Amino acid sequence: MYQTSRRRVLTILPGKLSSCGLGTAILAARLLIAFALPSHLFAQEARPAAQPAAAATSEAAFLKENDDAMTKMMNDMAIKPSGDIDRDFVAMMVPHHQGAIDMAVLQLRYGKNEQLRRIAQEIIVGQMQEIAAMKLAIGEQVPASAPAPTQANPAPATDHHMNMPAGMKK
C-alpha cells in the first residue's frame, strides 16, 4: 500500500503541476519528501530509563521461569496418538491449559500491572475449569476441588461446631 500510494502521487503530480499554482506545487513537493523519507526519522523514540538491579533480577527470574513453563507445556503436548481423537485432544489441551495457568501464576508473582494481574487470576480459574470439563467429557475422574495456585494452602478441616454451645453440638 505504501508503494502504491507513492506511485500514484508521482503519476498524478506532473499533470497537475502545470495547471496549478505555486501553493499546490509546494504541497506536492512536501508530499514527495514525506513519502521518500523513512517514517522512523520522524518518530520520537521514548527510551526506557535504566532498570534498577532488583528489577533486572526479577525480570531475569520471570523470563527463566516462563521459558521453563513454555518448554514443559510444549513437551507435554507432544503426545503419541492413541487412536481416540477425543482423548488425544484432551491429552494435548490439558498441558496447553496448564501452561497458561503456569504463565498466569508467574504474572501474579512478578507483574505489577493490576489489570493484568486480574486477567491472570481469571485465566487461572477459567483454565482450571476447562481442564476439569474436558476430563469429565472423556470420563476421567476429576480431583476434588483444590485452591487455585495463587491461594495459600487452605486451613486444615476443623470441627465446624467448635464455637457452638455444648447443648447444640450433635
Describe this structure in words.
The protein is mainly alpha-helical and 170 residues long. The chain folds into 2 domains: 2-39, no CATH class; 53-137. Helix content is 62%, strand content 0%. The protein contains 5 helices and no strands. The chain has helices spanning 2-17, 22-36, 53-77, 85-110, 114-137. The longest helix is centred in the middle third of the chain and has 26 residues, at 85-110.
Quick rundown:
By secondary structure, the chain is mainly alpha-helical. The chain has two domains: 2-39, no CATH class; 53-137. Helix content is 62%, strand content 0%.
Describe the biggest sheet?
none
Strand content: under 5%
Shape assignment:
extended
**How would you spell out the order of helices and strands?**
HHHHH
Secondary structure: number of strands: 0
**Low-pLDDT stretches:** 152-165
Task: Indicate the mean pLDDT.
Answer: 75
Classify the helix fraction into a percent range: 55-70%
Q: C-alpha Rg, in Å?
A: 30 Å
Span of the ends, CA to CA? 79 Å
The count of domains is 2
Query: Helix tally?
Result: 5
Which structural class do you get from the secondary structure elements? mainly alpha
